[in-house]
Amino acid sequence: MTSPLDGISRDVTSEIWELRLYVAGQTRKSLLALGNLRRLCEEHLAGKYHIEIVDLLQHPQLAEGDQILAIPTLVRRLPEPIRKIIGDLSNTERVLVGLDIRPH
Predict the structure, then answer these.
(1) Whose CA is closest to 95, among 104, 77, 83?
(2) CA-to-CA distance for 73 and 89, rounded, in angstroms?
(3) DSSP character for 40?
(4) Where are the domains of the chain?
(5) Architecture of 22-99 per CATH?
(6) The pLDDT of residue 9 is above 60
(7) Cα–Cα distance between 86 and 72 in angstroms, integer?
(8) What are phi and psi of 96, to 5 degrees?
(9) pLDDT tens-place string over residues 62-85
(10) Considering the chain, what percentage of its residues have pLDDT values greater than 90?
C-alpha cells in the first residue's frame, strides 16, 4: 500500500531544532557561547529553534545523560542524529558544519 507522501522528501527546515547548551555558571566563556549560539540561531534557524541552558553548577547530574566531558558544550538533540560541539561557538563555520546547518 502506498501513501500519497511516498517519494516526497520532508522539509527539514520546518522542523524545530532542540539545542541544549551546557555551561558552568556565568563565566565569560559560557556567556560568549550563549551569545554566539543565539546569533547563529537567529541568522540560520529563525523561529525554528529552542535553546535549553543547563548550568552544571546547579545540576551536575545532568552531565551524565549527554556524556558531557567539557564545557561549554552544545548538544543538538533534534533533528536527529544528536551532535555535540565543545567550546565558545565563536567559529561560525565550524558550528554550522558541526550542527549540519546549511547557510541560506
Answers:
(1) 83
(2) 9
(3) H
(4) 22-99
(5) 3-Layer(aba) Sandwich (3.40)
(6) no
(7) 6
(8) -60, -40
(9) 888 888 989 999 999 999 999 999
(10) 75
